[in-house]
């Protein structure tokens, strides 16, 4: 089993949010991302600060994460990079 690098982890987190209808609670996102709570919180803080993800609270105070337009663009561009790398066998 190989370790995921930073960009792969970011891609995985953003993909999970997208796959869940662009709205997911923190606990399932933590579970699906397969990160420790500490690492998960670090990544989410960074993603919110960089404008890739937004944190939303509903009327009952529950927090959700959703992608911003910038987050969707990251997913598109990162997927193109992955395809490029695979095409050349790198």
TrEMBL record:
UniProt superkingdom: Archaea
Q: Which Gene3D superfamilies match?
A: Winged helix-like DNA-binding domain superfamily/Winged helix DNA-binding domain (1.10.10.10)
Q: Which organism is it from?
A: Archaeoglobus fulgidus
Pfam families associated with the record = HTH_45
Where do the ArnR1-like winged helix-turn-helix domain residues begin and end? Answer: 3-84
Write down what this protein is called. ArnR1-like winged helix-turn-helix domain-containing protein
Note the InterPro entries from the entry: ArnR1-like_HTH (IPR038723), WH-like_DNA-bd_sf (IPR036388), WH_DNA-bd_sf (IPR036390)
């Amino acid at each position: 089993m190989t370790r995921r690098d930073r960009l792969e982890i970011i891609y995985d987190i953003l993909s999970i949010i997208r796959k869940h209808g662009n709205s997911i609670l923190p606990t399932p996102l933590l579970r699906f991302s397969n990160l420790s709570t500490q690492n998960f919180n670090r990544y989410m803080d960074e993603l919110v600060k960089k404008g890739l993800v937004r944190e939303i609270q509903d009327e009952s105070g529950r927090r959700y994460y959703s992608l911003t337009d910038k987050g969707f663009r990251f997913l598109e561009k990162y997927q193109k990079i992955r395809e490029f790398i695979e095409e050349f066998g790198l």
